[in-house]
Specification:
This protein is α/β, with parallel strands linked by helices. Helices cover 35% and strands 14% of the residues. The radius of gyration is 27 Å and the shape is globular. The model has no long low-confidence stretch (mean pLDDT 95).
Length: 471
């Protein structure tokens, strides 16, 4: 009945033509000429479109100093002079005289940071972040960070935006670096509406190459609420529209017993969306860069590299939770000075290469768990090598580490995630095809949820991971 009703009605072109005739603007004899001429124009345009090469408009205007990413992996000096780092570190905790900060911050945040900066070592994650952001602002870049409670930080570690306890007014110390400051830090505490927020931040990132735009998920798991933005824009925007984006996504990741909704950033999904080659050699020109840094200095260099490189790529960071305050996960000021840069692969300087018969490759906080177990059990024949850069796959850096160990009999990948998750399915064929290495694997068993929700089971799984990795 519906189709009969539709077919009984005059079409929109017929109604329009009848209206033109009634208005005296045309007559029936000219209708066919007009239609034939218009169809001819459209057919000619269709024929021409097959041979048209679209004009590249993306690197114009204020993007004109940027270039396409290299087909090779490039290294960028992202270090900063020590005096400037100390100056920024001190300014990052400086507040007006009449400002009433929270009573706990003076000792736990302000004085602690000043001590670390003065001593030049044991710099934690939040200090490295402040130094990276502050130095970029000092060099003329704007920085924006958004996400739920990002001013304080989900884990009460950042404190980039302070709140007066009497007036509720907000104060951002890094916006007072100099009297003549022209670029600033914008802190946007946002609601838990990941799709809308990430969509806005992506749009912000493609507007100008002079803005470092950071979105932090409260937990890495929450990025799934923005999957449509990640699929449609972040991972594929440059391929579809030639639009470069330097968006940084901070996704807190790590298995520490918090359950299935607060453990995994789903790194396997991001790796699956990368246009990395299994058999060829990756360059900077892959569609996204995915990292799992294990030291504050590495994070410092990654943030600065986003702005100092002559191209822009989305940066997906499997960021820390426990490492934010882990005493072993610290860096020195010397790790951030000129002539230093992000290291794609971190080798093992502790072991004697001649005594090593097993190499364990890993990433993220899992390294510290493995290293603690190794030290407690006096294991000297196993080297731990950290894969800090997952994509583009750093086969060259891995090769330089591998040749240091002439007596290796086994190479193994150890991860916290279940076998059907984590980096395993991405890194295994690349080790095999690019480096000629057949990896053994240690992981949790295949599982639907990212993690179990029972503390005792989590502890048993963690213990089994350690035992299977070293024995």
């Amino acid at each position: 009945q519906m189709y009969k009703l539709i077919n009984s009605r005059s079409s929109v072109p017929d109604n329009y033509w009848n209206q033109l005739q009634k208005s005296g603007l045309t007559d029936e004899s000219s209708r066919s000429d007009i239609s034939e001429n218009r169809y001819e124009e459209l057919n000619q345009s269709l024929k021409i479109s097959d041979d048209v090469i679209p004009q590249a408009f993306h690197l114009q205007g204020h993007w004109n100093k940027l270039h396409h990413a290299s087909t090779k992996l490039t290294t960028w000096d992202t270090g900063v002079p020590a005096d400037l780092l100390r100056y920024i570190g001190a300014k990052s905790v400086e507040i007006p005289e009449m400002f009433v900060a929270h009573s706990r911050l003076e000792k736990a945040h302000t004085q602690d940071r000043l001590n670390r900066i003065t001593q030049g070592d044991k710099l934690d994650w939040s200090t490295a972040e402040a130094l990276a952001v502050g130095s970029l602002i000092y060099q003329g870049y704007n920085v924006r960070i958004s996400g739920q409670d990002v001013g304080r930080g989900t884990f009460s570690h950042r404190h980039m935006m302070l709140v007066d306890q009497d007036t509720d007014s907000a104060y951002i110390p890094l916006n007072k670096l100099t009297e003549s400051q022209e670029t600033f830090l914008e802190v946007a505490n946002s609601p838990l509406s990941e799709e809308s927020i990430l969509g806005f931040e992506y749009g912000y990132s493609i507007e100008s190459p002079k803005h470092l735009v950071i979105w932090e998920a409260q937990f890495g798991d929450f990025n799934t609420g923005a999957q449509v933005i990640i699929d449609t824009f972040v991972s594929s925007g440059e391929g579809k529209w030639l639009l470069q984006s330097g968006l940084v996504m901070l996704l807190p990741h790590g298995y520490d017993g918090a359950g299935p909704e607060h453990s995994s950033s789903r790194v396997e999904r991001f790796l699956q969306m990368c246009d990395s080659s299994e058999e060829g050699i990756d360059g900077d020109n892959v569609n996204m860069h995915i990292v799992h840094p294990t030291t504050p200095a590495q994070y410092f260099h990654l943030l600065r590299r986003q702005m100092l490189r002559d191209f822009r790529k989305p940066l997906i960071v499997q960021s820390p939770k426990i490492l934010l305050r882990l005493p072993a996960a610290v860096s020195s000021l010397s790790d951030m000075l000129p002539n230093t840069s992000f290291t794609p692969v971190i080798g093992d300087p502790i072991v004697n290469p001649q005594q090593v018969n097993k190499i364990v490759f890993c990433s993220g906080k899992h390294y510290y768990t493995l290293d603690t177990y190794r030290k407690e059990n006096n294991i000297r024949d196993t080297a731990l090598i950290r894969l800090e850069l997952l994509c583009p796959f750093p086969s060259g850096s891995l090769y330089h580490e591998l040749v240091k160990f002439p007596n290796v009999k086994e190479c193994l990948w150890s991860q916290e995630e279940p076998v059907n998750m984590g980096p395993w399915s991405f890194i295994e064929p690349r080790f095999r095809k690019q480096l000629g290495i057949s990896l053994n694997r240690v992981s949790r068993i295949p599982y639907g949820p990212p993690a179990v929700g029972v503390g005792k089971i989590h502890q048993l799984e963690s213990k089994e991971l350690l035992t299977n990795t070293f024995h």
